[in-house]
Amino acid sequence: NAGVTQTPKFQVLKTGQSMTLQCAQDMNHEYMSWYRQDPGMGLRLIHYSVGAGITDQGEVPNGYNVSRSTTEDFPLRLLSAAPSQTSVYFCASSYTRDQERWPLHFGNGTRLTVT
Amino acid sequence: KNQVEQSPQSLIILEGKNCTLQCNYTVSPFSNLRWYKQDTGRGPVSLTIMTFSENTKSNGRYTATLDADTKQSSLHITASQLSDSASYICVVSHDFYNQGGKLIFGQGTELSVKP
C-alpha cells in the first residue's frame, strides 16, 4: 500500500518557468489537499478538493492552480515560478474532510527551489 | 487571530530521558487538537487526537494532554529513543472542520535525542 506518492522529490526552476507537482493516493480518499512548509512557519493550505471535479482555494492560493479529474490524482501547477515559491510542498489526503475522525495522510514532499 | 504557538522551538535530550512539549492556542471555536510527528525529509504522521471533552490520550510512549479552559496542550514522551528525533507539530481544528472550518498548524518543536 503506497499511501500518498509525490513526484518529483526535488526540483529547481528558473523564475518564470512553469511546472506541475504530481500527487497520487491509492487509499480511495475523497479529500486531498496541498500545503507548503516554510522555515519557522506552520504548514499553510494552498488548495484542496473534497472529491473528483471539486476544488477550492486555501489560504495561500495565488500563483497555483489545481484540478481533480480522478479520485486518485491531485496535481499542483505553478503557472510562472517566483523565488517566493521556494518551499517544501506536501500533498495530504484523508477519507473525508472530517479531521476529527480521519487524520491527514501526507506524502513525503517535493522540495522546490526557484532561482 | 487564530494562532497555535509551540514551545520550545528546539530541544536536545539524552536517550532514555523524558520530555514535554507545549502547545498554546487561541483558536476559537475549538473542535479538536492533533499532534503529528515529522521525521526529517518525510511528511507528518498523526500521533494522537483529542476533542473538547478529552483531557488525555496515549499512543505508546507518547501521552498528550489537553486543557480546553486554558487552551493548552502538552505532548509527553517517556523513555526517549533515538528514533524520537523529529519535529512535533500541534494542529488545531477551527470550528467544525468538516463543515468549512480549517486547520491551524503550529510551527513545530524540533526534538533531538542524543545517545
Let me know the average pLDDT of chain B.
92
Class based on secondary structure composition and strand pairing of chain B: mainly beta
Q: N-to-C terminal Cα separation of chain A, in Å?
A: 36 Å
Order of helices and strands of chain A: EEEEEEEEEEE
- Biggest sheet statistics of chain A: 7 strands, mixed
Give the total of beta strands of chain B: 11
Count the beta strands of chain A.
11
Report what the structure shows.
The complex is a heterodimer of chains A (115) and B (115). By secondary structure, chain A is mainly beta. Chain A contains no helices and 11 strands. In chain A, strands 2, 4, 5, 6, 9, 10 and 11 form a 7-stranded mixed beta sheet that branches. A 4-stranded antiparallel beta sheet of chain A has the order 1-3-8-7, with no helix packed on it. In chain A, a hairpin with a 2-residue loop joins strand 5 and strand 6 (54-57). Chain A is globular and about 40 Å long. In chain A, 35% of the residues are buried. Chain B has strands at 4-7, 10-14, 19-25, 30-38, 45-51, 56-59, 62-67, 72-77, 86-94, 103-105, 109-114. In chain B, a hairpin with an 8-residue loop joins strand 9 (86-94) and strand 10. Chain B is globular and about 40 Å long. The termini of chain B are far apart. The chains are: A mainly beta (115), B mainly beta (115). At the A-B interface, loops of A face strand 4, strand 5 and strand 10 of B.
Sequence-ordered SSE layout with sheet pairings:
The complex is a heterodimer of chains A (115) and B (115).
Chain A: E1 4-7, E2 10-13, E3 19-25, E4 31-37, E5 44-51, E6 54-57, E7 64-66, E8 76-78, E9 87-94, E10 105-106, E11 110-114
Parallel strand pairs in A: 2-11
Antiparallel strand pairs in A: 1-3, 3-8, 4-5, 4-9, 5-6, 7-8, 9-10, 9-11
Chain B: E1 4-7, E2 10-14, E3 19-25, E4 30-38, E5 45-51, E6 56-59, E7 62-67, E8 72-77, E9 86-94, E10 103-105, E11 109-114
